[in-house]
Amino acid sequence: MNKQVTLLCTLAASLLFSFSAQAAETAEMKVKGSILPPACTPTFAGGNTVDYETIPAKSLKSREYAKLETRSIPFTVTCNAKMRIGIAVTDNRATSRIDSGSFSSAHSFGLGSVDGKNVGNYVLALGPDVKVDGNNSQLVFFDTQGTGVSNFGSLIMSVHNTARFIYTALTAGQVWTFDMNLTAYLNKRENLNLTGSIPLDGSATIEVKYL
Q1: Which residue among 74, 83, 95, 117 is least crowded, i.e. fewest CB within 10 A of its CB?
Q2: What does the DSSP assignment read for 186-203?
Q3: What range does the record give for the signal peptide (predicted)?
Q4: Count of other CB atoms within 10 angstroms of residue 156
Q5: What is the pLDDT at residue 164?
Q6: Rounded to whole angstroms, how far apart are CA atoms 25 and 163?
Q7: How far from 110 is each of 135, 151, 184, CA to CA, in Å?
Q8: CA end-to-end span of the chain, whole Å?
Q9: Of 49, 60, 58, 53, which is closest to residue 186 (Cα–Cα)?
Q10: What is the pLDDT of residues 113-149, one digit of tens each?
Q11: What distance lies between CA 160 and its chain's CA centroid?
Q12: Strand, helix or coil at 59?
């Protein structure tokens, strides 16, 4: 008798456990998100072309390079997050550089060539300030080959086809505005063929680097 009672109690307990397991509710939790790489958009205010328009041939000088007026080119980089960036510049007309005497070839960008004769060169200067999110920040540059970091006022940009020299600010931010000034120099009159039109054909690539 006792054995039968014990068996029935065990069976009842098993039925209750099974019913409880079937009646349990569940809820799923999900974790989502995206890891995005840094993204920045560089733009030139007023477009990316510096146009000196028509230059009279008679304005060119013998035995002397002709300096053209300096043009200002505001350059802005807008990023999707607060970060440190730098800019590097590569000359796409490097084979047409001349040494105008004002700056070495390391700081001169070519203006193309006509009939095998180099038209001239130009230099780019940054600074003395860069604005980061509307605030002035100190402008610096460093050599990616590890020769150090230097602080300057206004910087004459160095040319290197492997984008070796990086220009940046000491602070991080999302909107960067660089003051960039371009000054062009034309070759000596006797070094050019002035019987036809001579176009200025400078081209440089400015690259945003994520630091």
Answers
A1: 95
A2: EPPGGGS-TTS-------
A3: 1-23
A4: 18
A5: 73
A6: 61
A7: 34, 27, 10
A8: 85
A9: 60
A10: 999 999 999 999 887 778 999 999 888 888 777 666 6
A11: 15
A12: helix
Segment holding 57, helix H or strand E: none
| Strand segments (E) across 52-119 | 66-67, 71-83, 85-91, 109-110, 113-114, 117-118
Radius of gyration of the chain (CA): 33
| Site of tokens 């019987």 | 195
Distances (CA, A) of 103 to 34, 134, 142, 168: 48, 32, 20, 22
CA-based nearest residue to 125, from 103, 155, 161: 155
CA separation for the pair 142, 65 (Å, rounded): 31
- What is the identity of the amino acid at 206? I
- The ranges of the chain with pLDDT < 50 are 1-11, 15
CA pair distance 138, 118, nearest whole angstrom = 36
Domains and CATH numbers, the chain: 61-210 (2.60.40)
Neighbour tally for 81: CB within 10 Å:
11
Tokens of 87: 């800019």
* Residues counted in the chain: 211
Residue for token pair 């569940």: 26
The answer to whether 169 touches 140, Cβ cutoff 8 Å, is yes
